């Protein structure tokens, strides 16, 4: 079967076989479903055949989910990865995000309808990606893309600032800085920003709503969150609703921060060179009504951005 | 501080003598009512500086000699006075003053002490009994303060014990709550799937009811009957009886299993959390091990393999919730001693008089220096927030309160073994029964 017509293939990995049976039954009518209770066997499978969506448990005897997802990413970077866990474990969530670049962090017990929606969303992205890969390459837009990309810094931490300044000076990136949220919105409306580096607080305000609306309007923008907080719930919301790219704890380790920064720059350049590529990113709307209204308000303020870059809705 | 001016309270203004006053005159002054309380009278020079002290004792001594009064009566007091009496400045702290007085104290007490101001001028007398009384009052006060401190300490110790209890309880509740999420996940999903899967069955039932109504009605025309037949057949085809039956069976079986799992966890939580349950007579220590393992599972799962070698044990009198706390502590410590994966071996066995339980891990072990201190309150090698340093000190106390011993052997890089031994008959019970008291508590540490 040609790659483009193959049904979307899901793989669930969990050491509890009853979870696997239940999920397989739930999704078998719409997708090709594989299940593995041993992460090593799952990796073996990933070496053999393309898996479009990988959903993994976190705590398993042989290997934890975050590690499996990181290794799956190395094997199939185009795949979409999801963590499904009953434990709130910040370290695991950070590892799954930073090394596994997860699309969602889902919790057990899950709501079947929401799970359906999430998988459907991922499947749709996966199919579009596949179609875009199969389409003949457009004009080599990469040729006229300037080497430098644009970074918006929403963090006054001297260590972070020094690293970013150094990187911009060496590689010729454009740096924008804002000390307030409305300043940040003005910059985002004016400039094409590839990477946002943000603390969760800026001046008097929380930046999460801004990051969440930015993710809705422009999925290409990569967010690196730098924060001293370690709250699983907040992190979960940032992954699912702001599609953050990396989460770096403060005080930042220079090595970790630089690694995150380089990953973001590489990814941004890659996308800039391929404007037609489908980005497998799609933010969920916040659950809380008040927060949703705030995010929608900001989405409106970022309206010009949507028009300019024609992000897929 | 209360010391400032403390000596002022001891000050008695007494008219001082001059050096040239005659001894007869001194004797007369001693007889005055106002001088009754004093053992001695001060002598000061022209600028009011003390230059001596004359005591009743000295005077008696003189007058009792033969012709003493006749020989000495007209002599000036300066000839017989003590030229170097104890002089204290009013500003001297009480403690210092008391020390000075008591070091010079001789028995019998024959003199008072002189109090002077900052410039060394005579202000009055102080008496030793008065000073001793003040010292006693102070001691009493100090004692009360100590008593309070002791009570505070006891209370905060109780709070610490409670907080360690709460910490392990909290950890355990969080663990169980998370553990519940897995069965809750598939049970909930299965119920949803069963609802979905059963929908075509209801549709089939309805189509069959229609068909049967048509069949039973002689007035039905051919066409309607054909329609009904077709509808029933379609509904039947929508139900793949074989697969459906198998799916139903599997989903129901898994759901049953999940519900049992959930009630087991909740039951474990209930058993475990009866923290202040009174001691009970017939506790099977192996049940405690199982309860603690259920609770600790969250911490162990996926990393640590637990092996159990539990032999049948006679019933034991103990407070199971406390023993559970000890076991949970040992299990958590063992798990925390491992980088990545490891093995915990739990053994239990009994002899005529005792029950033994060992918890062994192949974690990082301890150096002799660490081993020396592990039972000390607050001793921890773990980062803040991870270790309270109270787990073992509390475990030690619990085991001691049960009349038992806790022993440990450890080797860096190899692992650690804790051995708990509990007597089948408590020392107190034994004493009641008139038996000899149990051997004193051992607190053994071995370097394997
Ligand atoms: N099984 C073990 N292996 C290695 N070290 C241990 C073990 N159990 C206890 N310890 C040491 O004893 C210390 C005190 O333990 P404990 O009183 O339970 O307090 P905490 O666990 O909060 O540090 C620990 O910090 C650790 O250094
Ligand atoms: Mg401990």
UniProtKB/TrEMBL annotation, chain A:
Q: Which domain of life is it from?
A: Bacteria
Q: Which UniProt keywords apply?
A: Phosphoprotein
Q: Where is the Response regulatory domain?
A: 9-123, 150-265
Q: Does the keyword Phosphoprotein apply?
A: yes
Quote the protein name from its UniProt record.
Answer: Response regulator
Q: Name one Pfam family in it.
A: Response_reg
**Residues with 4-aspartylphosphate modification:** 57, 199
Enumerate the InterPro entries for this protein: Bact_response_regulator, CheY-like_superfamily, Sig_transdc_resp-reg_receiver
The Gene Ontology biological process terms listed for this entry are: phosphorelay signal transduction system
UniProtKB/TrEMBL annotation, chain B:
| Enzymatic reactions | ATP + protein L-histidine = ADP + protein N-phospho-L-histidine
> Which keywords fit this entry according to its UniProt record?
CBS domain, Phosphoprotein
Spell out the InterPro entries in the cross-references: CBS_dom, CBS_dom_sf, HATPase_C_sf, HATPase_dom, His_kinase_dom, HisK_dim/P_dom, HisK_dim/P_sf, Sig_transdc_His_kin-like_C
Histidine kinase domain boundaries: 175-426
GO MF, one example: phosphorelay sensor kinase activity
Top enzyme class of this protein? transferase
- One Pfam family, short name please? CBS
Q: Does the keyword Nucleotide-binding apply?
A: no
What the entry lists under PROSITE patterns is as follows: CBS (PS51371), HIS_KIN (PS50109)
- Ranges for the CBS domain? 10-71
Q: Which residues form a coiled coil?
A: none
Quote the EC number.
2.7.13.3
Q: Output this protein's name.
A: histidine kinase
